[in-house]
Structure formats: structure tokens, C-alpha cells
Write a structure and sequence with these properties.
2% strand; 383 residues; two-stranded antiparallel ribbon; mainly alpha
């Protein structure tokens, strides 16, 4: 069945905005800007924009915007129904869901999202954008294991095979970072890169916990997906915004320099971040790219699942990794050939785990069986 123009638009929107989300965050990390000279000479010097907690707040603003869009569509649809007009099928799908739930059910999921995303942003500041996106594939492994414990599911042989391929892919990607060529202009230490990779993988455990929690406690409420994403964004934004205040007064010391490059080693200095953004407008552009892209990415992802399938969404997510890898190599990162087999193993593991290869395998097997039957039925040629 051929895709409609609208479905092609949704697929393209998901692919583009999903890629922009990671690339814009890495772009901000690559930017240099001076801070407020009133805080001291060290702040006045140009430094990298290293504010993962504030970047997480930006991500939650993007998710929160989904709730605002949902509310607008919901109340506009209500007025339309009251006026005796019929809603379109697309509008019905967007607002279809239970409204008799307590929003607080999304707070634990938002806390997981907050911790996982912040860890990933810290890791992204230490490693390449391409490795960052590939290592996020580890979420399959931890989601499967946690589903067995908390959801009572069983892992089939096919899933175990997919998990094995994913683990092999993660190892190869990690080795690629370890053996990547050194740039004389880049002072990034190899140990720091590996630490960033480990933080990204650890973040996938938290993300997997979020997914399992949502399936166990949130899915039974049958909330509209756009609304669910928005409520998680709301609680994540409120919680992390409040935590920025004590983070300003928490000093991690020189030993925590891998977390922050703040001259006074503050866990997060939001005031310095805003001053740096004012000093370098490109950081503002990158931050806006993060906020806007996450909003459209969530909308497009939900719409792709409803209009096409979850399988299509998974395939597009894998293509997003390719786009991020290509753009990163062209702009920032050195080309590491070892990343290619790593990506192929991760992609193969994801496909096997989700059963994406079942249908092509059955078609090939049936075709071969038919061919063998035709050969057996042929009458021998008598000379």
C-alpha cells in the first residue's frame, strides 16, 4: 500500500526533527562564549557551553509545548462539537483518550526522563554525537530485562538473539571511540570519551525504567499520547527548574570537572549559561533548535505510530542514527571505520528483536520452497 502525502510528510518530519534534536544539542556543546566578568576573570574568558541540566530544561519545554497544543486542539474540538460540526478523523485520533486520570501519575516517569536525559547530555558533552546516538540503542537490552522482572514477560529466542547483536554493537562502538584518531586541536581525553559512553549507557537503564513504568502504570489510563508527553514535560520542567537553584550552590570540586567546566565547579550555573547565550547568539539558535525539534519530533513520532505503525517508527529512528552519524562526521567528528560495523550490528539487533525481519524471512523461505517444489515436479528429460 502506497503512502499518502501526509504520511510521507510525517515520516520526513520525524526523521529531520529527530536528527536536529541531537545535532543542535551537540552544536551548543561545541560553542564557545564568555561569561559575566563581574564573577571573576575565569568567567570572563571564553569557555565551552557546558550546561547539561539547563539543556534538559529546554527539552522539557519542548515536551510541555505538546500539552499546550493538545489543550488547544481539545477545547477547539469541543467548541466545534457543541456547534454541531463533525470532527475530522485526524483530530479525533489526536484527542482520543481518557480524561479521568490524575496527572500526578506522570511525575515518576518525568523524574526518570529528567535523570536519564541529563546523564545523556553530560555524556554527549564528552563523546561524539554519532556514538551518542548509537549507544542509545542499549535501551532495548535493559527494557527487555526489566520487563521480565516487573511485567512478568518472557524473552523469546529471537529477542535474545537481537539482544546479543545489540550488545556486540555496543562493544564495537565503544572500541571505535577508544581507537579513534587523535585531533591535535582537541584536548579531549580518551578516558573522558569512554566515561561519556558509559554515562550514556547507564542513562539507558533509567530510560528503560521509565518505559516499564509507563507500560505498567500509565498505559492503563489510555491517555492521548500527545497529552501524556505534555504532562511529563510539565512535571520535568517544574522539578528541574526548581532544582537549578540548589545546583547553583553545590560545588563538586576539581574531581567533578568531568560533569561541569564551571570555573567554581558549580553543579549547574544557570546564570552563567544565560550570560554565555547572550555573548554568543549561536547558542540561542542551537537551544531553540533543541526545544522546537523535540516538540515536533514527539508529535511526528506519535502520528507515525498511529498513521503507519510502530515498526515504521522504529525504522525511521534507525535512519535518524545514520543522518546524525553522516552530519557529525562531515562537521565535527573524525571518520572511524569501526563505527560502521557497530551501527550495522545495532541495527540488526534492533530489527531482530522487534521482528522486523520475520516477514522478509518468511517470504524468502516460501519462495525457495516453491522453487524446490517446481524443480521436483519437472519431468526428467529423456534423450
Amino acid at each position: 500500500m502506497a503512502w499518502t502525502v501526509y504520511q510521507l510528510f510525517l515520516a520526513g518530519l520525524m526523521l529531520i526533527t529527530g536528527s536536529i534534536n541531537t545535532l543542535s544539542t551537540k552544536w551548543a556543546d561545541k560553542c564557545y562564549a564568555s561569561g559575566n566578568p563581574e564573577y571573576g576573570k575565569a568567567y570572563a574568558e571564553e569557555r565551552k557551553f557546558d550546561h547539561p541540566f539547563l539543556q534538559s530544561v529546554g527539552m522539557f519545554i519542548g515536551e510541555l509545548s505538546c500539552l499546550l497544543v493538545f489543550k488547544f486542539i481539545f477545547f477547539a474540538s469541543k467548541r466545534q462539537v457543541n456547534a454541531g460540526k463533525e470532527l475530522s478523523a485526524g483530530t479525533k485520533r489526536l484527542i482520543d483518550g481518557n480524561q479521568g486520570f490524575h496527572p500526578i501519575v506522570f511525575w515518576p516517569a518525568a523524574l526518570c526522563d529528567m535523570c536519564g536525559t541529563t546523564l545523556m547530555y553530560i555524556g554527549l558533552n564528552m563523546t561524539d554525537a554519532s556514538s551518542f546516538q548509537m549507544l542509545r540503542g542499549a535501551v532495548i537490552v535493559f527494557t527487555a530485562l526489566l520487563s521480565v522482572t516487573f511485567l512478568g514477560r518472557s524473552i523469546s529466542k529471537q529477542m535474545w538473539l537481537g539482544i546479543l547483536f545489540v550488545i556486540l554493537g555496543l562493544v564495537v562502538v565503544g572500541l571505535a571511540d577508544f581507537f579513534q584518531p587523535k585531533d591535535p586541536n582537541d584536548v579531549t581525553d580518551t578516558n573522558l570519551v569512554i566515561t561519556g559512553d558509559l554515562l550514556i549507557v547507564i542513562a539507558q537503564i533509567i530510560t528503560a525504567s521509565q518505559m516499564v513504568y509507563e507500560e505498567k502504570y500509565v498505559s492503563r489510563h489510555s491517555v492521548a499520547p500527545l497529552q501524556a508527553v505534555g504532562w511529563e514535560g510539565f512535571f520535568g520542567f517544574i522539578t528541574l527548574s526548581v532544582l537549578l537553584v540548589p545546583m547553583y550552590f553545590i560545588q563538586v570540586g576539581p574531581g567533578g570537572s568531568f560533569i561541569t567546566s564551571d570555573p567554581e565547579y558549580r553543579l549547574e550555573n544557570a546564570l552563567d549559561a544565560f550570560y554565555q547565550m547572550g555573548s554568543n547568539p549561536l547558542i540561542i539558535v542551537a537551544q531553540l533548535g533543541n526545544v522546537i525539534s523535540i516538540a515536533f519530533f514527539n508529535f511526528a513520532g506519535i502520528s507515525v505510530t498511529r498513521e503507519l505503525s510502530a515498526t515504521t517508527r522504529m525504522v525511521l529512528d534507525s535512519l535518524r542514527t545514520v543522518v546524525i552519524w553522516v552530519v557529525s562526521v562531515i562537521i565535527w567528528d573524525p571518520f572511524v571505520p569501526l563505527q560502521i560495523p557497530g551501527f550495522l550490528l545495532l541495527g540488526l539487533g534492533t530489527a531482530v528483536y522487534n521482528g522486523l525481519l520475520n516477514k522478509p524471512y518468511r517470504m524468502l523461505r516460501n519462495r525457495l520452497c516453491r522453487r524446490e517444489t517446481e524443480l521436483d515436479d519437472e519431468e526428467p528429460i529423456i534423450n
